[in-house]
Design brief:
The protein folds into 3 domains: about 5-85, Winged helix-like DNA-binding domain superfamily/Winged helix DNA-binding domain (Arc Repressor Mutant, subunit A), CATH 1.10.10.10; about 90-170 and about 270-300, Periplasmic binding protein-like II (D-Maltodextrin-Binding Protein, domain 2); about 170-270, Periplasmic binding protein-like II (D-Maltodextrin-Binding Protein, domain 2, 3-Layer(aba) Sandwich), CATH 3.40.190.10. The chain contains 9 helices and 12 strands. The protein has helices spanning about 5-15, 20-25, 30-45, 60-85, 100-115, 125-135, 150-160, 230-240, 285-300, and strands spanning about 50, 55, 90-95, 120-125, 140-145, 165-170, 175-180, 200, 225-230, 245, 260-265, 270-275. The protein is elongated and about 65 Å long. The protein starts with a helix and ends in a 5-residue tail after the last helix.
Length: about 300
């Protein structure tokens, strides 16, 4: 097994295609195929499953790739430090549902670590894609919520993909509204109060089931529905159309000054937490991010 072979299989997994990976690596397709085959033979595993639709990691291949990424990253750090005599470029990725506190923690991480070089990614994305990102180690950490309604489906996916769920906080549903909305000053709201307002939710793509919905009470029907893909669009629609969405109640006063959270009077709750691969240790930056996350939540805790 060589470091070059590990880099090859990581690139193949990233591209999902031997041909595309060969182009990016500037080698021939037969050479790449042969290198992958030799590694699989030496390790006595099938790293990839090949089909007419392309090439994807096998279950044992996913675990192997997790270790391979760690080895390659550590080698890169050694080369940066000793061969090039400069600070190693640090890497960290997180995938999250659309939570401002996750962004606040990411900003604090970059500010407080004093890094001179880094490659860091935060992806606000769909629920199923968060799970897939962590499963395939495109992200070290994923942030999403679990409640009695979706727990059976999510727990099954966590188990199948060797992921652990770690609770961060428990929240009751809150209505996010424009600060100018006539309902914004209420001490609490009921579902009846919201019947005439446009309801905004995050579109979940191919996996658009109730169990993957980012909003609690996902089985409810609404007279007016608007589906969006990003938080900025959702907040703009809250303000421009006097719409609403239902979430945790955690808001960043710095990032979302024009939005308020009003408690929703329903007998429901949700637990927001983070997921990670159970077989791998977190990097230093990932551990620091989780600490920043806790600090952000202390500052932006849902109103009682």
């Amino acid at each position: 097994m060589t470091l070059q072979q590990l880099k090859y299989v990581i690139e193949v997994a990233h591209c999902g295609s031997i041909n595309e990976a060969a182009k990016r690596l500037f080698i021939t397709q037969p050479s790449l195929s042969n290198a992958v085959h030799q590694l699989e033979t030496e390790m006595d595993i099938s790293i990839f499953v090949r089909s007419n639709r392309g090439i994807t990691p096998s279950p044992e291949g996913m675990e192997f790739l997790g270790y391979a990424r760690q080895v390659v990253e550590q080698c890169n750090l050694l080369e940066e430090h000793y061969l090039h005599h400069r600070s190693a470029k640090r890497q960290f990725s997180v995938s999250t549902q659309h939570y401002s506190f996750a962004v606040s923690a990411f900003i604090a991480l970059i500010r407080h670590q004093g890094l001179t070089t880094y490659d860091c990614t935060i992806s606000e994305t769909r629920t199923y894609e968060i799970i897939q990102d962590v499963r395939y180690l495109r992200s070290e950490v994923g942030i999403l919520y679990r409640n009695p309604f979706n727990a059976k489906v999510l727990n099954k996916l966590f188990l199948e993909n060797d992921l652990d769920f770690h609770p961060l906080f428990k929240a009751t549903p809150h209505v996010f509204l424009s600060a100018q909305n006539k309902l914004a000053s209420r001490p609490f709201l009921t579902l009846e109060d919201l019947e005439e307002l446009p309801y905004l939710s995050y579109e979940q793509g191919e996996y658009n089931s109730f169990h993957f919905s980012e909003e609690i009470l996902s089985t409810m029907t609404h007279q007016k529905n608007i589906y969006v893909n990003d938080r900025a669009t959702l907040f703009n629609c809250l303000i421009g159309l006097d719409g609403y969405t239902i979430s945790t109640g955690v808001l960043s006063a710095e990032l979302n000054a024009d939005i308020v959270a009003v408690p929703l009077r329903v007998d429901e709750s949700m637990t927001v937490g983070w997921i990670a691969h159970k077989n791998l240790s977190l990097s230093h930056l990932a551990s620091c991010y989780l600490e920043e996350l806790k600090d952000a939540l202390e500052k932006e805790h849902p109103p009682e």
